[in-house]
Amino acid sequence: MASDSYHEAYDLLSPPTRDMHRAISTLIEELEAIDWYQQRAEACGDEDLRAVIQHNKKEEVEHAMMTLEWLRRRSPEFDASLRTYLFSEAPITLVEKQTEDVQRGGSAGAPAGLAIGSLKER
């Protein structure tokens, strides 16, 4: 078996669930690589090597974002959360509170110029 990180029997999982697992595992690995390259670049004393390491880190960021986009396209939950939080301007916890308020049918209590609808349109 290619992955030992399944929590349920492989043969009980549908192909879409296995693909989701592959994508999530890949995203985790890409984020770990970004962290490793960041640490290596910061600790590196050679400017030329630091430039190569920083280039490698940028490639890993691209890979992570491509995988995240794949997840967004295939998961309504990822899609909704990414549309709520990414590129928002308000403090993240305020966005969450406004989202919860709207879902409960209450008033978002948004500051002037900020409404949860405008965040979802982004």
Q: Could you please describe the fold and organization of this structure?
A:
- With 122 residues, the chain is an all-alpha fold.
- The chain folds into 2 domains: 12-74; 77-122, no CATH class.
- Helices cover 70% and strands 0% of the residues.
- It is built from 5 helices and no strands.
- The chain has helices spanning 15-43, 47-74, 76-85, 92-103, 116-121.
- The longest helix is centred in the N-terminal third of the chain and has 29 residues, at 15-43.
- The protein is flat, with a radius of gyration of 19 Å.
- The model has no long low-confidence stretch (mean pLDDT 88).
- How many separate domains? 2
Major sheet, described briefly?
none
Proportion of helical residues: 55-70%
Please state roughly what percent of the residues sit in beta strands, choosing from under 5%, 5-15%, 15-25%, 25-35%, 35-45% or over 45%: under 5%
Low-confidence stretches: none
Q: Summarize the helix and strand pattern as letters.
A: HHHHH
Overall spatial form = flat
Distance N terminus to C terminus?
A: 40 Å
Structural class from helices and strands?
A: mainly alpha
Separate helix tally: 5
Tell me, rounded to a whole number, the average pLDDT.
88
Radius of gyration: 19 Å
Strand segment tally: 0
Concise overview:
This protein has helices at residues 15-43, 47-74, 76-85, 92-103, 116-121. By secondary structure, the chain is mainly α. The termini are far apart.
